[in-house]
Design goal:
Elements: H1 3-12, E1 17-21, E2 25-26, E3 34-41, E4 60-69, E5 72-79, H2 82-85, E6 95-100, E7 106-113, H3 115-123
Parallel strand pairs: 1-7, 2-6
Antiparallel strand pairs: 1-3, 3-4, 4-5, 6-7
Length: 126
């Protein structure tokens, strides 16, 4: 599976994920560079949790970084190591986020477009 297929699967596969993006999420072929952190959240009985927006528990269990460089998506980082994952906190201001898939269809996910947060998260991947 290539990086674009994996990224599409994470965004549309029904897992509880939050996207932290450098720019608007558009998976179509384009030369605009972008970086997306996909934070997978814990599943289970605490998922409903009573929080506004239906988020409930916000414990991150794994992190994957995808980058679009020269028009192609690549997976640049992945971890489920608890010592590394704990640095990636889900911002309290996460909201519904429009996602443009590689075939041009639009979908809704959860996340934020915040270049400064992406830059900070990039330091955790080194």
């Amino acid at each position: 599976m290539d990086a674009l297929e994996e990224l599409s699967g994470l965004l549309t596969g029904g897992s509880r994920v939050v996207v932290i993006a450098q720019r608007d999420v558009d998976l179509r072929a384009t030369t605009v560079e972008n970086a997306l952190f996909v934070l997978r959240l814990a599943e289970g009985s605490l998922a409903a949790g009573g929080r506004g927006g239906g988020f409930g528990e916000r414990r991150v269990v794994s992190v994957v970084l995808f980058r679009r460089v020269s028009g192609a998506w690549e997976k640049a980082f992945e971890t489920s190591d608890p010592a590394k994952v704990e640095k990636f906190e889900v911002p309290y201001y996460v909201a519904r986020l429009p996602l443009t898939l590689s075939d041009g269809r639009e979908s809704m996910g959860y996340g934020v477009v915040e270049p400064e947060l992406v830059e900070r998260y990039l330091t955790y991947t080194r």
